[in-house]
């Protein structure tokens, strides 16, 4: 299991995500995802196909942020404005901008909804709740509708390999079960706010169905 992972680090990144005027910093958004991916990697190779996809999307965004136009990628708001103003987004079908920042972040944004639902389910779970069931219910209510059959099947198989609730709480590395639950209660409003701000921005700009 990952020694360095801590739910607190995830919380800190999502806390740092929002600027005073409620813009979402790309830097902390992808740092939050990096933490989560390191956690997922510690769960075994059955999750590799998921973490590879997440890492490649994180990397695309990091490359934009570190690139010559990086100042436009400081926040999700500035990225959307820059890419739309400069016609850098494939809006209806994939073409000359297959890996725009907007479409790449949208994939992680949809996964953030899964995370929100899964963590809420964990927070309110009881001793006999099953992580595989919680994970799969969260997935079916969010990401699944954007995935083809083959990915849904593979994800279902991976969920069955999740550790039980007690082991899961242990690897979150945030103290006793009660402390983990308290921390989840602090993290969830932050994650939800980042999710909602991004959702509203994408909806306003008609970007929620980018190919
Ligand atoms: C606080 C600790 C507890 C929670 C720990 C959660 C750790 C989760 C870490 C990462 C989650 C993975 C994020 C996955 C992003 C998927 C993005 C996506 O939808 N990609 C698909 C579409 O991309 P394009 O083809 O359009 O470029 C792509 O096809 C997906 C491929 C891989 C399969 C994705 C399955 C997603 C399942 C999400 C649940 C992860 C379960 C982990 C359980 C700990």
Description:
It is a single chain. This protein has 211 residues and is mainly α. It is built from nine helices and no strands. The chain has a single domain (2-204), classed as Glycolipid transfer protein (Glycolipid transfer protein, GLTP, Orthogonal Bundle), CATH 1.10.3520.10. Helices cover 64% and strands 0% of the residues. The model has no long low-confidence stretch (mean pLDDT 95). The structure holds ligand LTTT4AJV. The site of the ligand CCCCCCCC/C=C\CCCCCCCC(=O)N[C@@H](COP(=O)(O)O)[C@H](O)/C=C/CCCCCCCCCCCCC has 24 residues, from helix 1, helix 2, helix 3, helix 5 and helix 6.
Helix and strand topology:
Elements: H1 7-16, H2 26-41, H3 48-66, H4 76-85, H5 101-123, H6 131-140, H7 149-160, H8 165-171, H9 177-204
Brief summary:
The chain is mainly alpha-helical and 211 residues long. The protein has helices at residues 7-16, 26-41, 48-66, 76-85, 101-123, 131-140, 149-160, 165-171, 177-204. The mean pLDDT is 95.
Please tag this protein with its features.
binds ligand LTTT4AJV, globular, 9 helices, 211 residues, Glycolipid transfer protein, GLTP, 64% helix
What is the CATH architecture annotation? Orthogonal Bundle
Q: Name the average pLDDT.
A: 95
Which ligands does the model contain, each kind named once? the ligand CCCCCCCC/C=C\CCCCCCCC(=O)N[C@@H](COP(=O)(O)O)[C@H](O)/C=C/CCCCCCCCCCCCC
Number of helices: 9
Radius of gyration from the alpha-carbon trace, in angstroms: 17 Å
Question: Can you give the helix content as a percent range?
Answer: 55-70%
What's the domain count? Answer: 1
CATH level 1 name: Mainly Alpha
Structural class: mainly alpha
- Estimate the strand proportion: under 5%
Please describe the biggest sheet, giving its number of strands, its sense, and whether it closes into a barrel: none
Structure summary, number of beta strands: 0
State the end-to-end distance.
36 Å
What's the helix-strand series?
Answer: HHHHHHHHH
Using the alpha-carbon principal axes, give the shape: globular
Low-confidence stretches: none
